[in-house]
Amino acid sequence: MTDGADAPLPDEPAPDAVLLAGLTASGKTDWALALAERWPIEIVSVDSAQVYRGFDVGAAKPSAALQARVPHHLLDIRDPTETYSAGEFAADAVRAIEAIRGRGRLPLLVGGTMLYFRALVQGLAILPPAEPQRRREIDARAARLGWSALHAELMQRDPQAAQRIHPHDAQRIQRALEVLESSGRPISEWQRGTAPAHNLILQRWALVPADRAVLVQRIEARFQAMLADGFFEEVQRLHLRGDLSTATPALRAVGYRQLWPCVAAGADRDTAIGQAIAATRQLARRQLTWIRADPGWRTVDPLQPGARENWITAVLAALRQRGPQSRGP
């Protein structure tokens, strides 16, 4: 990890887009806005919760004022009853990047959904088709043993995949076991044979605080701020719709999943808040695992003095290799 951000090498090509990933609560939004003060950018959200309408406070969705200040893309593009895949994100992101570049601006992709980043950067594997009967068999095993036990099984049979999948992520555990049992090959092996469906030059940065104690404090403070801003009331409004349940993919989002039982079944609110904060810490650990597994990310400690300014300097140095660019309106 670098303390700040190293300047690009002289022969490094100018990027078509800049990617800013990082652990939750690491300050990605503030860094993006700081760059917007120095270069004409448009932001493409890389967040699996922000795509849903009505998922605002708990998804840390940019305010209307912020969106008016800096154009944002891939926000509010799905109803919570709908699904949205990593493959759809990759296609939508490429279209957004090309449109932003056509306006003479820099596409800055910002977020923490690492699967989306991977789909864009590496492409998606063509996996064996779904087998409903095999899925039912896996679900039956999970009903008897629990998804944590099936995750432990996956850890033995495909440790690479298991390390990227949370023990409670039933959908991904099920798919990984289904692929393994139907094809005889681990899903991690299928995924290694991918390639992006574009020729874009992507400069990638990831914010990774070295001081984990500070990060934990920031995670808790941010969640408490969300509650003060009306997160619990937002979950109540979603529940009143009457068409959402724990089976709805959108409600797997951290925070929403933990608060939902409070409004749906009267679960203890303080317990749910503690579970949500713990789940957010677990999310940060999973994000770190994704980042460490891919050497293409340039990691920066955002807590180091001068790190943000050094990052901006490095990004601008790379962009200026493309030649003069208007700052736009």
Describe the overall structure.
This protein has two domains: 17-124 and 194-322, Rossmann fold (3-Layer(aba) Sandwich); 132-192, Histone, subunit A. Helix 5 (132-145) crosses helix 6 (147-157) and helix 5 packs across helix 8 (170-183). By secondary structure, the chain is α/β, with parallel strands linked by helices. The longest helix is centred in the C-terminal third of the chain and has 24 residues, at 269-292. It is globular, with a radius of gyration of 20 Å. Strands 3-2-4-1-5-6 form a six-stranded parallel β-sheet, sandwiched between helices. Strand 2 (41-46), helix 2 (64-69) and strand 3 (72-73) form a beta-alpha-beta unit. The chain has helices at 28-36, 64-69, 86-102, 114-122, 132-145, 147-157, 159-164, 170-183, 187-192, 212-228, 231-240, 256-265, 269-292, 307-319, and strands at 17-22, 41-46, 72-73, 106-111, 202-207, 298-300.
Q: How do the helices and strands line up, and which of them pair or pack?
A:
Blueprint: E1 17-22, H1 28-36, E2 41-46, H2 64-69, E3 72-73, H3 86-102, E4 106-111, H4 114-122, H5 132-145, H6 147-157, H7 159-164, H8 170-183, H9 187-192, E5 202-207, H10 212-228, H11 231-240, H12 256-265, H13 269-292, E6 298-300, H14 307-319
Parallel strand pairs: 1-4, 1-5, 2-3, 2-4, 5-6
Helix pairs in contact: 3-4, 5-6, 5-8, 6-8, 10-13, 11-12, 12-13
